[in-house]
Amino acid sequence: MVAPQLAAIFTKLQTLSTSDHASVVSMNIFVALLCACIVIGHLLEENRWMNESITALIIGLFTGVIILLISGGKSSHLLVFSEDLFFIYLLPPIIFNAGFQVKKKQFFRNFMTIMLFGAVGTLISCTVISLGVINFFKKMDIGSLDIGDFLAIGAMFAATDSVCTLQVLSQDETPLLYSLVFGESVVNDATSVVLFNAIQSFDLTNTNPKIALEFFGNFLYLFLASTVLGVVVGLVSAYIIKTLYFGRHSTDREFALMMLMAYLSYIMAELFYLSGILTVFFCGIVMSHYTWHNVTESSRVTTKHAFATLSFVAETFIFLYVGMDALDIEKWKFVNDSPGTSVAVSAVLIGLVMAGRAAFVFPLSFLSNLAKKSASEKISFREQIIIWWAGLMRGAVSMALAYNQFTRAGHTEVRGNAIMITSTISVVLFSTMVFGLMTKPLIRLVLPHPKATTSMLSDQSTPKSLEAPFLGSGQDSFDESFVGVHRPDSIRALLTTPAHTVHYYWRKFDNAFMRPMFGGRGFVPFVPGSPTERSEHNQPQWQ
Predict the structure, then answer these.
(1) What is the pLDDT of residue 460?
(2) pTM of this prediction?
(3) DSSP string, 499-542
(4) Torsion over CA of 289, 294, 297 and 302, rounded to 10 degrees?
């Protein structure tokens, strides 16, 4: 009696051991592929035609083909997609680093335009795409999709991925254009996720004005509450580090506290059913403005490069997986009887994405230009083309939302859902590889002499001769001087120069109340003999 039971237990343990060993083998191969992406991306960096995203996608495709051949057509990827893996572990470092590294002066100087593109523009794009898919998909045989699915499709394909364009543009040569493209891409992702969550939380089968009003109110609540939570957590981290000053004993503690509190902001947002993307983005902005200046010099170097490295590895991981998942037999077997339908769906989606971008970029640029009197602050038609093009590429957020809406535990069980997943993968691959490869020649064609536009696009009031010895270009702050900006003496002046006026009053409030309490440049804690003291004596004073 005992022998058979022992044999069964041994067999189960052996099976578990084999499964664990297979997982270890898969992880080894995947990590090796990540290393290959970094090495090959470095070798292809000189010509700038290729970038890390396209490199990871191509390597993923080739790896998927090899695995498909070895497995006899059973599988093409090493790992099964997990929504938790993406939203809990991969997305937070990407979005936080975007907020932490953003040039805040340019971002907030163009804040209204960025919010106009990122929030209002995303709503317009989502509406255009949703109406388009309702009109076209009902005429196609793609299975049963309800109104919630159509609106979710609009939200997921309204999310952009401007990484290819940002790798070609220069913050120094075209600061206005870079700021608009970068800012819109981050706010766009956050808005898309908030919109997607709002769609999922409502029963949209029976719509009426009351439900529409509740939907809009819920959207605004998620947007504002998420922003406030990120700002609060960032300020708390700055206050704790400034007050206790961990660096006098251990720089590791202050770095660990920054990293954990940044992640805590994201987790708290998910706990309260808010938008973690928006929360962790504004937490990154606040931390770079206050907390980063409260830590020691060594911790500043460590945090900057650590956050950037985590973001880079996470992005490479996502694109590598998307490349392998493009050949997943499980998804394609649902549509092998009508491949033309999947191709048609992909073509319709790409067309609607292009139309949705055009529906808000050019009209909102026109409205934005009406409120600006200075020619250097207006968005030229050439720049509008670049902004439109930058948002045509789709990436990780669209993929994650598609898996969230149309799969269960990484698998598709309905033909319509399988078509949407394969179409989403096709759109991501096509837009990233084709549009990404055409980005550099397009920018060269539209902006043939980027340095000639520097004088127009850059901030005339920012001293060009003052540069930090390190980290300065990525960590500029609100306190950079505004030469020639004076206090407005009338309501008319307030309305004609809103960006400069808001910035003027913010700087006064920041210097009088915020920095004395939460720290920041010029308000770092002083401890005799500390790395911070040496840093403050050695670095040039920007005040």
Answers:
(1) 38
(2) 0.76
(3) HHHHHHHHHHHIIIIIHHHH--TT-----TT-HHHHHHHHSPP-
(4) -70
